Amino acid sequence: MGLVAQLGVIALAGMIIRNAVILIQEVDENIARGHTPLDAVVNASIQRARPIVLTACAAILGMIP
Asked: SS3 letters for 19-58?
């Protein structure tokens, strides 16, 4: 695997980790608001789905050229 490919893998891993941290933070905030753990996870996933998908699509489309 070349250097550019390795940098791409590192960048994608960083993006996935960042999205996971933001999702966990959202779950914690929902639990603090009084939601049950299951409801907190479901609501956080619904709220964060669009930004995560848009970020992933932008990264994929940026790597096509």
From this structure: HHHHHHHHHHHHHHCCCCHHHHHHHHHHHHHHHHHHHHHH
pTM score of the predicted model: 0.76
Q: How far is CA 28 from CA 4, 16, 31, 54, 58, in A?
A: 36, 18, 5, 23, 27
| 11-58 confidence digits (pLDDT tens) | 888 888 988 999 999 999 999 999 999 999 999 999 988 888 888 888
Instruction: State the Cα–Cα distance between residues 63 and 44, nearest whole angstrom.
Output: 28
Q: Is 22 exposed, middle or buried (0-12, 13-18, 19+ CB in 10 A)?
A: middle
